[in-house]
Amino acid sequence: NAGVTQTPKFRILKIGQSMTLQCTQDMNHNYMYWYRQDPGMGLKLIYYSVGAGITDKGEVPNGYNVSRSTTEDFPLRLELAAPSQTSVYFCASSYIDRVGQPQHFGDGTRLSIL
Amino acid sequence: QQQVKQSPQSLIVQKGGISIINCAYENTAFDYFPWYQQFPGKGPALLIAIRPDVSEKKEGRFTISFNKSAKQFSLHIMDSQPGDSATYFCAALYTGANNLFFGTGTRLTVIP
To answer: What span, in angstroms and rounded, lies between the C-alpha atoms of A7 and A24?
Structure first.
């Protein structure tokens, strides 16, 4: 049982480049999330999705885009990479996001923008 | 603005000791308070959670104490072990929201 799988694990980008962080889950969860984790700042929600075709902004959406064409996949797109986007990105999923339902996290993508 | 404030930033405890991590919040709409444990190179994993209608929840060596009037909650790790060395995050959520608000994390080191 793979859970939440994120690729790549590491990536270095140049300023202005674009890339897509991949996330897939095999638990048939309807809710999926993207967080970024910066040192000393905890995790901040970038975007989330409550099901295929439905996405919405979190706390820090600027500079990112998402899509959800299937239940399993929730890619995060950086269009014009900036140094401020250097961070560790985590994808998570949960089944029916209501009180008491835990979010399951992937192992993260460490992204550096130089 | 940090919705959930967590302290200390780092903590060193001797093996067998008690580790205590504290969190505070302002939004009284929060009705679910989970703690996540994160090992290096891994994503956070749910450790234990509490709802505000109880003052304490215990699971093995891990206990959450909750003080609704003070808007504070804490994680106690009894008989701390080197394997407990990790970063711990408190978080909060309210029904109908889709955003877990995380604390800034506490790096716990348990010395053998």
So the answer is: 9
